[in-house]
Amino acid sequence: GKSAKGNDELLRRGHKDDYWLHARDVSGSHVLIRNAGKKVPQPVLEKAASWAAFYSKGKNEQFCPVSYTPRKYVRKPKGAAPGAVVVDRENVLIVPPLAPSASE
């Protein structure tokens, strides 16, 4: 999602086994990898993480930490601000922020 409301909508539409990504400790877009419960290849995970970094306030850094986890470990508390979530389990990738190319 490219806005707080878009992030909420993405979270609602995600399947429990999809992968959710977000730049760590900065505001930015949520990214969802639809995977139907299959293992996500490392290059796909790294590319999606670089997009999450690019669409965040960390986009001007050389490297940006990005949290990722299955969607089932991300929840929105009642009354939380738009776009705010709680992540129960996370992994972190350190990636350079990269814009998606037009062909992707």
Structure description:
- With 104 residues, the chain is an alpha+beta fold.
- The chain has helices at residues 4-13, 42-54; strands at 19-23, 31-33, 64-70, 74-75, 86-87, 91-95.
- The strands form two sheets. It has a four-stranded antiparallel beta sheet with strand order 2-1-3-6. The chain has a two-stranded antiparallel ribbon with strand order 4-5.
- Strand 1 and strand 2 form a beta hairpin.
- The model has no long low-confidence stretch (mean pLDDT 91).
Gyration radius from CA atoms, angstroms: 13 Å
**Number of DSSP strand runs:** 6
Q: What is the helix/strand order?
A: HEEHEEEE
Range of helix content: 10-25%
Shape: globular
Instruction: Report low-confidence residues grouped into runs of 5 or more.
Output: none
- Widest sheet: strand ordering: 2-1-3-6
- What is the count of DSSP helices, taking H or I runs of 4+ residues? 2
Spatial gap, N to C terminus: 17 Å
Task: Quickly give the structural class.
Answer: alpha+beta
